[in-house]
Amino acid sequence: MSFLTLGHRGVMGVEPENTLRSFVRAEASGMDAIELDLHLSKDGALAVMHDADVDRTTDGTGPIAAKTLAELRELDAGRGERIPVFEEVLEAVSSPLQAEIKDVAAARALADVMLERDLVGRVEVSSFHDEAVTEIARLVPGVRTVLIASRWGADVVDRAKAAGAATLALNIRRLTLEVVERAHSESLKVIGWVVNTQDHLRLARALNLDGVTTDFPEIRRTGRFTA
Predict the structure, then answer these.
(1) Which of 114, 139, 189, 198 falls between 20 and 30 A from 145, CA-CA?
(2) What is the pLDDT of residues 35-73, one digit of tens each?
(3) Which residues of 160-194 are buried (b: 16+ CB within 10 A; e: fewer)?
(4) What is the rounded distance in angstroms from the CA atom of residue 106 to the CA atom of residue 108?
(5) Would you say which domain of life the source belongs to (predicted)?
(6) Superfamily of domain 2-212
(7) Is the pLDDT of residue 187 over 70?
(8) Domain boundaries defined on the chain
């Protein structure tokens, strides 16, 4: 079984998160795929940012949903980087992408781009929200989907199956072998996040995970050799 390493918001441990600079660095570091986050701007653009507000990662304030793309472009997202839109990431790197959507509205906007550009083979879609996973699967036939959870109950595997997800992305700090084995018995892959230390990488291997999400390029290199 191959072990995949996903760059978390690019490689946010060394570059400003969710920027083109971070994504290009992730690709140059050999990440198997790049994870990013999508919110809708006031005028419906797929802005690449994790938080609903711009306060933490830019020099601006306020919610993304209250700003137009032009207003978002004026903000510094770190080291002079601007907030990109999803289409720009598609052009900036050629790596496979895992796009996390925050709600059903973002699912519908992403679906339009995926269908227009035939991205089913390149873009995997993830969400914490079961209904968003279900909606993107309905809109984009054949799309690969991921259900994310930080805390979960005994029904997490059943939830993933009901939503049509092929993969579970679960908090490495709470993962147990029981959950992994149950998921694998139902033909679901399991990704651990966020794996930034050698101890967590060894744990990921011991749990027989299918891959990890990481903030740092070094995890990808050492992951090939850690038993």
Answers:
(1) 198
(2) 999 999 999 999 999 999 999 999 999 999 999 999 999
(3) bbebbbbbbbbebeebeeebbebbbeeebbbbbbb
(4) 5
(5) Bacteria
(6) Phosphatidylinositol (PI) phosphodiesterase (3.20.20.190)
(7) yes
(8) 2-212
Closest residue by Cα to residue 136 from 160, 161, 112 = 112
β-bridge pairing 46-48 and 33-40: antiparallel
The token pair that represents 113 in the structure block: 């781009």
Residue 76, Cβ density class (10 Å: 0-12 exposed, 13-18 middle, ≥19 buried): middle
Q: Is the dihedral of CA 112, 114, 120, 126 positive or negative?
A: negative
Q: Are 188 and 168 in contact (CB under 8 A)?
A: yes
Strands (E), 49-198: 97-101, 123-127, 145-149, 167-171, 189-193
Ramachandran sector of residue 164 (left: φ over 0; alpha: ψ -120 to 50; beta: rest): left
- Binned at pLDDT 50, 70 and 90, residue 221 comes out as confident
Q: What are phi and psi of 127, to 5 degrees?
A: -165, 150
pLDDT value at residue 180: 98
Q: Residue 75: its pLDDT value, please?
A: 98
Distance between CA 127 and CA 107 in Å, rounded? 9
